[in-house]
Amino acid sequence: MKQVPTLTLDGYLDNVDLMMTKLFEYFVLSEYSQTKLFYTEIASLPYLIRTAGPDNDKLEDMVKSTLATLYGRYWDNVTVNTTITEENKNDSKSALKIGIEIEVIVNGKTYTLNKAAETDNGSVKSVDAKLDYFLGA
Predict the structure, then answer these.
(1) CA end-to-end distance (rounded Å), the chain
(2) Which side of the chain, N or C, has fewer Cβ within a 10 Å radius?
C-alpha cells in the first residue's frame, strides 16, 4: 500500500483514516504556487476558490475533481461528493460552506471522511469534521 509522507515525527502514514485526514489537511493548507517542480500537481482549496470566482457550480466541480485525483493517487476506489451553500447573499462579502464527503474502499472495507470548510471573502476561514454541514443542516 502507498504511504502519505508527513513533515512530523509520524514520518510516513499507512493507516487509511490518518492518510485520508492528512491528505485533506494538505488540500486545505497548500498553495498552488508553492513549488515549481510540481506546479500543476498541487491540490489547493484556496487556489480553487480564487480560480472559480463567484461560480459556485464550477467550484463544486473543481473541488470534486481535484480531490478525486488526489485520493486516486493512493486508492483505486474513490468517491467524492461535494455541496456548497452560500451565506450572506446581501452582504458584499461572499461566505461559503463547502461540504465534502470522501469514500475509499480498501480490501473491501469502506472508509469515509466528512469535512466542511467555511470561506470568507475568498479565503478558507475554518475546517470542521461535522457531518451536519455536509447534509445541509
Answers:
(1) 36
(2) C
CA distance 68 to 61: 11
Cβ-Cβ contacts under 8 Å for 88 (sequence gap 6 or more): 94, 95
Is the distance from CB of 87 to CB of 97 less than 8 angstroms?
yes
| Residue 102 contacts residue 112 (beta carbons within 8 Å) | yes
pLDDT tens for each residue of 3-61: 998 888 989 999 999 999 999 988 988 876 666 666 567 888 988 988 888 889 999 99
Grid cell of 57 as nine digits? 457550480
CA distances from residue 30 to 35, 51, 127 in whole angstroms, order as listed:
10, 15, 14
| Residues 66-121 pLDDT 10s | 999 999 999 999 999 999 988 765 555 578 899 999 999 999 999 999 998 888 87
Q: How far is CA 49 from CA 1, 53, 135, in A?
A: 32, 6, 21
